[in-house]
Amino acid sequence: MRIAIPVENGAVSAKLAAATFRIFEDDHGKIVRRNDIPCGGEGSEAAVALLEDVGADVLIVGTLDEAERKLIARAGVMPFSGVTGKAEEAALAFLGGVIVFDASNTWNACGHGHACSVDCEACAGEGFRTSGRE
């Protein structure tokens, strides 16, 4: 799984359109690789393009507006917003189940208006990636 976090000074950025993203890769709940990647553009569209390029499964960020949620949904990335603190601690919290999906968030990775899961048949039928699937 690849977890993408926009960062500012090592902390989770309040906004999606950050200059740098920290990409964490896990193996059975442990971080095995960490890379900082410059966004390479400005704005939400450039950030979402980067998420697609790196094959991000999860986005952890401070805030997202509705337009950003729609962009992220189309990219097949599961968003987790409302997160603050150090990026590595946030990634570990997600892997440990501390950061969980908010079912009231209707713009999730599939955009179908439900809490998406690993076995979301609606997503699989439309070619969206869900956690644990390619």
SSE layout and pairing:
Layout: E1 2-8, E2 11-12, E3 20-27, E4 30-38, H1 44-54, E5 58-60, H2 66-75, E6 78-80, H3 87-95, H4 121-125
Parallel strand pairs: 1-5, 5-6
Antiparallel strand pairs: 1-2, 1-3, 3-4
Can you characterise this structure?
With 134 residues, the chain is an alpha/beta fold. The protein contains four helices and six strands, in the order E-E-E-E-H-E-H-E-H-H. The chain has helices at 44-54, 66-75, 87-95, 121-125; strands at residues 2-8, 11-12, 20-27, 30-38, 58-60, 78-80. The longest helix is centred in the middle third of the chain and has 11 residues, at 44-54. The chain is globular, with a radius of gyration of 13 Å. Mean pLDDT is 80; it is low at 103-119 and 126-134.
Helical run tally: 4
The geometry reads as: globular
Helix and strand element order: EEEEHEHEHH
Q: What separation lies between the terminal Cα atoms? A: 10 Å
User: Could you tell me the radius of gyration in angstroms?
Assistant: 13 Å
Return the structural class.
Answer: alpha/beta
Query: What portion of residues belong to β-strands?
Result: 15-25%
| Count of extended strands | 6
* Unreliable runs: 103-119, 126-134
Mean pLDDT: 80
Major sheet description:
6 strands, mixed
The portion of residues assigned to helices is 25-40%
List keywords for this structure.
4 helices, 134 residues, six-stranded mixed beta sheet, alpha/beta, 24% strand
Report a brief summary of the structure:
With 134 residues, the chain is an alpha/beta fold.
